[in-house]
């Protein structure tokens, strides 16, 4: 299995409606993109405010294998989400690693 971790930093604080829209789109990945074992997403609620660095949305996806992770990037549902970020995304951090359970 592979873990895919993503942290998003936006140009400015998002309205609650936009947060809900982005989270709904992310949660919909599990039913629409093959190879996803688990998926969680949420707004950053850490009390470690000195460590936020502006990253307010997090995503964790567990994929069946590396090939499923590779197929995720170009998948149309993922690409539709990427388009939702046009004009509002300042930066993104991605970490992918194999998981042995």
Number of E strands? 4
Radius of gyration: 14 Å
Tally of helical runs: 3
By secondary-structure content and strand pairing, the structural class works out as alpha+beta
Domain Stress-response A/B barrel: 2-97
Subunit structure: Homodimer.
Organism: Paenibacillus contaminans
Pfam families: Dabb
Detailed description of the structure:
33% of the residues lie in helices and 36% in strands. The protein has 101 residues and is α+β, with helices and mostly antiparallel strands. The chain has a domain at 1-42 and 70-92. Strands 2-3-1-4 form a four-stranded antiparallel beta sheet. The protein is globular, with a radius of gyration of 14 Å. The model has no long low-confidence stretch (mean pLDDT 95). This is Dabb family protein. Residues 2-97 form the Stress-response A/B barrel domain.
In short:
By secondary structure, the protein is α+β, with helices and mostly antiparallel strands. The protein is built from three helices and four strands, in the order βαββααβ.
Secondary-structure topology with pairs:
Layout: E1 2-10, H1 16-32, E2 36-43, E3 55-63, H2 66-72, H3 76-84, E4 89-98
Antiparallel strand pairs: 1-3, 1-4, 2-3
Tags for this entry?
3 helices; Dimeric_a/b-barrel; Dabb; 101 residues; Dabb family protein; HS1/DABB1-like
């Amino acid at each position: 299995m592979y873990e895919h971790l993503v942290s998003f930093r936006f140009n400015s604080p998002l309205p609650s409606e936009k947060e809900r829209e982005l989270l709904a789109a992310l949660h919909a990945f599990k039913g629409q993109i093959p190879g996803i074992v688990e998926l969680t997403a949420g707004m950053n609620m850490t009390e470690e405010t000195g460590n936020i660095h502006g990253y307010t949305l997090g995503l964790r996806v567990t994929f069946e294998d590396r090939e499923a992770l590779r197929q995720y990037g170009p998948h149309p549902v993922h690409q539709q989400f990427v388009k939702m970020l046009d004009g509002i995304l300042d930066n993104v951090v991605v970490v992918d690693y194999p998981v042995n359970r």
